[in-house]
Specification:
alpha/beta; Rossmann fold
Length: about 280
């Protein structure tokens, strides 16, 4: 673990896995520490992974100003890490909620991004709507799973705006391509690793300006990979196709049978795809 100073003086931490040319990795959550990413299923055998703990998460310090958790304000933290590593241009990989930050970074600093890998991305920054019907259709792909009836009933409550804490717990199997012991352990390990105050501020008013971001992404000429999970309820393939269409040079890859954490569901396929893109 190494630390550096953000522009406002907050001490931020990052963790390095593997050797070679670095790829800066942004975790999701939003505002979850990077521990859950592991080494992305063995991707560190191909590229050096630099995992950033966003401010207030993991081993990074808590900022004096809680408003600095807002997504658009975190762009400066990412650029400070780039400078810390001595990179003029960097390859950037982001997962889930962290992809909103990656999109804002690419929009503000397109000249600083070599390749951009978006793994099961969130779409808030781009202003894309994922309807309840699309989520239901994606969920129904799992109808033959033994846990499906209870999980689908909970999903219906969530989609209707009537979800409780128990409902959100009950839909956990939908996040994984296989609801096995490894998935259960991964889910359990996530508990307590998300900064809830920071998550609430991440998407606060003013964080996102979709029209401006979409216009900037239309001018973003670097290569982009969007890797979606076939059965991912959070980032269903139809929404991922809509996001891919915002870029001039984007490749959409749908990983069969995978959920929101494709490096867990099929590490070999995930690493092969992502390493080939990163080069």
């Amino acid at each position: 673990m190494t630390t550096f100073s953000a522009p406002d003086g907050t001490k931020l931490a990052y963790h390095v896995f593997g050797d070679g040319h670095p790829v800066i990795c942004l975790p999701g959550g939003p505002m979850q520490d990077s521990l859950y990413l592991g080494d992305l299923g063995g991707l560190s055998a191909h590229r050096q992974l630099v995992m950033l703990d966003l401010r207030g998460t993991g081993q990074s310090a808590t900022p004096e100003d809680p408003a600095s958790y807002r997504c658009d304000r975190l762009v400066d933290d990412v650029d400070a890490l780039r400078e810390q590593l001595g990179l003029d241009r960097m390859d950037l990989l982001a997962h889930s909620g962290g992809t909103n930050l990656a999109l804002l970074y690419a929009a503000r600093h397109p000249e600083r991004v070599g390749r951009l890998a978006l793994i099961t991305p969130s779409v808030f920054a781009a202003g894309i709507t994922i309807t309840g019907e699309v989520r239901r259709e994606t969920a129904l792909l799992r109808r033959d799973e033994p846990w499906f009836p209870a999980a689908f009933a909970a999903l219906e409550a969530v989609v209707a705006g009537e979800g409780t804490a128990d409902s959100f717990q009950a839909i956990a199997p939908f996040w994984y391509g296989r609801w096995d012991a490894a998935a259960r352990a991964h889910r359990a390990a996530e508990d307590g690793h998300k900064n809830m105050e920071a998550a609430a501020a991440y998407g606060a008013e003013g964080a996102f300006d979709p029209d401006t971001t979409r216009a900037a992404l239309a001018r973003f000429t670097s290569p982009v990979l969007l890797l979606a999970g076939e059965v991912d309820l959070n980032s269903p393939p139809p929404a991922m196709a809509e996001l891919a269409d915002l870029f001039p040079h984007a490749e959409l890859v749908i990983q069969p049978g995978s959920g929101h954490f494709p490096w867990l569901d099929d590490a070999n396929r995930f690493v092969t795809t992502t390493a080939a893109f990163l080069g």
